[in-house]
Every structure is written in C-alpha cells, then in structure tokens.
Specification:
CATH topology of the largest domain: Rossmann fold
Distance between the termini: 61 Å
CATH architecture of the largest domain: 3-Layer(aba) Sandwich
Largest sheet: 5 strands, parallel
Shape: extended
Length: 451
C-alpha cells in the first residue's frame, strides 16, 4: 500500500484530507510542523508528501529541499495559498512534483496523488535497474575468488581511472568485454557512451564504415551521412574486440586516432577530432602476428601500454562451482524452474573438464542442463558427453590417468614437459613448438597435471 504524509498545521483540514485520501486506498500519516515531518520521513519511506507552505516552524517551499535530500524517491505536492502561486512555482524548482491552490483545487488532489505515485514508482524501478546494471558491469559483479581472477581485477581497478589505453588478452570466453565495461564504469568517462565492436564479425568495408562513419555517396548504398562509432563514443570508451583481426589499412587509421585524436570519415577529406578511450582485446598472440606481418608493431605498442591477461577457466578451477551456481540461479529463474546448487559429484566432474570455451562454455553447459533436467538438481546425465568422457578418465581418487611407461600418452606427457622446460614455462612458445593450439596445450597440462 502506498504511503502518503500530510504536513499541515490546520488539524481539522489535515484530518479531513487524510480521511479522503485513505478512502482511496492510501496509507496516511500526519504531521503538524516541519520537525515532526522530518522525523517521520527519517523513520519510514513515503511515496508522496502533501505539504502546506506556511508551517509554524518553517516554510514548506524550503522544506521541499530537505525532503528531497532525505528521500530522493519521494514525490512532493505543495499546498499554496490563493494569490501566492509563486510559492508553488519555487517549490517545483526545488524538486516538488506539483502544487495545488488550497480551497480551489481540492478536486485535483486525488488525481495528482496517483500521478505522483506513478512517478515515484517509476523512479524507484529505474534506480533498481540502474543498480543491477552497474553491478553487472562492475568489478564487484565479476565472480570468483581465485588468485588469478583477483590479480586481473586489481590491475583493472588501478588502470580504470587513468584514461590509459588498455589491451585485454586471453582465450575466447574469458570475459574480456565484461572487464572492458567495468573499466569504463570505474573511469571518469562513465557518463559517456560505452561502444563495442567485434572486428572479426564484419567485413573490411563495413568495419571501416562502422568505425569511422561515411558521407552520403561514399560507396554504393551510402544514401546518407552516417556517424561512426568513434563519434558515438566521443567522451566515452570504444571497445575493439578481436583487434588482431583488423585489416592492415584500418590499423593505420586507428593508430592515427591513438596518436593524434583525429580521424577522417569514408568519402571525406575533413579531419574530425575525437576524445575517446580505446580498450582493445584479443585471443591471438599479437607478437606472433607482428612477426608474420599481420599486425603493426607501432599499433601494438600504443595498444599495450597497459596489458591485462585474463585467466582461462583452467587457471581458476576453484571458481567453477561459484560460477556454475550463479548460472544455475540465472537460468532457473529464466525458465521458472527450482534448481538446487551443484552436487559434489557434478561439481567434481566440471572441475575435471578442460573448458576450451572457458566461462562462455560453462554458461552454455549450465543452460543446456537446466533445459534438459526434469528434477530439482543438475545430474550427470544432462551434462554433455565430452564432460562425462573426460571425467571417466580420472581414477577414483580424482587423480590423472594411470599411464603405462610404454603408452603414447606417457610419451606425450614426457615430451610436453621437456618442451615446457626448454621454454622456461612459456606456454605460448611451448604451444608453438609443439604445433598445437594454446587451448589444447592447457587441456593437456591439466590432464597430465603438469605444472
């Protein structure tokens, strides 16, 4: 039930108004002066306050400011005397919802109360959604307590307020866009736009147009001028995901943005200034891309002023259960199911798996299991076959496979260990020498328990 506070020193009029409002289904409280009113507002929330201008210990117009400060979501309707409408106007400037002329506008009280209540409810809903959004895109919203994820968060928190260009590296599905968004939210640019684009998802021509914009007639189909993402992100942050996929000529144009803070639209010769922070991300080894001639070295050094390596899920096994239970709650709510947290058996199976797709893959696995599950707990049967198969290779004590000295697996383990020793623990270089992907190497390190 919505609460209304009536502030008026005329007791009979106040009581009459309270009875009329209560008949409409409102819960009504009364106060005869500013002091009592502020005490009541401190004690509980009121959706709407109906306040007279002339009070024994103060002025209702000034009181409006105090009420707004104490309870920003409360809407205030001011009661002003005839001939003194300027009080009502000033009250609105101070944050009141509206005003009523006493005696003349009594029939407007109930409609105004309902309108004010609608606004109060909407204000709180928006605040709640903003709070959820800020939590989603904040460092507090990044789950996990492992040392690996804590270290990445600490680095991101330090660089966020600086405006420095950031390069996020790590495998696909490790949460690079979530980190980029959190860095933006913790920066002085948080009120500006956060604009993201995946450089590998669109063609070269479209990527150039999307980033820099174009003029009408610049190419076939360009019927009107178009703003690019650099203009959209002006004063904010531009997140370039999969930067390693960007074509060479666009890399040169991006370098100009980083060095001079300017760019030219497609089909134009006019320079446009921009104030934008660049956060880039890649799952590629950019140094190898430079060596192969696919990425500009000068651009790499401008992008990697502050580099943060995001850990794979294999490097934060301790977080798998917490992440899984979060996704269980999310998808259970979405599908209107009641699903309990993971059992020890299923949690252990998830820890054994190599997770080449990282958090994104874990999220998909949980969603799939909840759709298939007919009980109130995720069971082994609803897990994908590859997870069940990998778990079955573990011994009863949760150890690694029992390897014969003459088995191919044993030879593979010994060879990987030798190459890892040769590279002094450099996993990227180890994967290159073994001619396998970095994700495959991590799976094998986890499988054979190689440190």
């Amino acid at each position: 039930m919505a609460r209304v506070l009536i502030i008026d020193d005329e007791e009979k009029l106040r009581s009459l108004t309270a009875r009329i409002i209560s008949i409409e289904g409102f819960e009504v409280a009364e106060a005869g002066n500013c002091k009592v009113a502020l005490q009541k507002i401190n004690q509980q929330f009121f959706d709407v306050v109906l306040c007279d201008v002339k009070l024994p210990d103060g002025n209702g117009v000034d009181l409006t400011l105090q009420i707004r400060e104490l309870s920003p979501d409360t809407e205030i309707i001011v009661l002003t005397a005839y001939g003194n409408i300027k009080d009502g106007v000033q009250a609105i400037k101070n944050g009141a919802f509206n005003y009523i002329v006493k005696g003349d506008d009594n029939n407007r009280i109930i409609p105004l109360l309902h309108s004010a209540l609608e606004k109060s409810n909407l204000t709180r809903k928006v605040a709640h959604l903003e709070s959820r959004l800020n939590n989603k895109f904040s460092f507090e919203g990044i789950l996990g307590g492992s040392d690996a994820i804590k270290e990445a968060i600490q680095l991101a928190e330090k660089v966020a307020p600086t405006g420095t260009t950031v390069l996020l590296t790590g495998e696909t599905g490790t949460g690079k866009e979530i980190f980029a968004n959190a860095i933006h939210q913790y920066s002085p640019r948080k009120n500006g736009n956060f604009v993201a684009i995946n450089c590998s998802a669109i063609s070269h021509e479209l990527l150039e147009s999307e980033m820099f914009g174009h003029l009408a007639g610049a190419f076939t189909g360009a019927t009107k001028d178009k703003k690019g993402l650099l203009e959209e992100a002006d004063g904010g942050t531009l997140f370039l995901d999969e930067i390693g996929e960007m074509p060479a000529d666009l890399q040169a144009k991006l370098l100009r943005v980083l060095e001079l803070g300017e760019f030219i639209k497609v089909g134009s010769n006019k320079t446009i200034k921009t104030d934008v922070r660049i956060i880039a991300a890649t799952n590629r080894d950019l140094l190898r891309e430079i060596a192969s001639g696919h990425f500009r070295q000068d651009l790499y050094y401008r992008l990697s002023i502050f580099r943060i390596q995001l850990p794979s899920l294999r490097e934060r096994v301790a977080d798998i259960e917490e992440l899984s239970n979060y996704f269980i709650q999310f998808y259970a709510d979405k599908t209107n199911k009641k699903i309990k947290p993971l059992t020890k058996e299923v949690a252990q199976m998830l820890r054994f798996y190599g997770w080449p797709g990282n958090i994104r893959e874990l999220k998909n696995v949980i969603e799939r299991s909840i759709i298939l599950e007919n009980t109130d707990t995720i069971t082994v049967d609803t897990l994908p076959a590859e997870i069940r198969q990998q778990a079955s290779t573990q011994d009863n004590a949760g150890g690694v496979k029992t390897l014969s000295a003459f088995s191919m697996a044993s030879a593979e383990k010994i060879h990987i260990q030798k190459v890892l020793n040769y590279t002094k623990g450099n996993k990227s270089e180890t994967a290159r020498l073994l001619n396998i992907g970095i994700a495959t190497l991590y799976r094998k390190l986890d499988e054979y328990k190689i440190q």
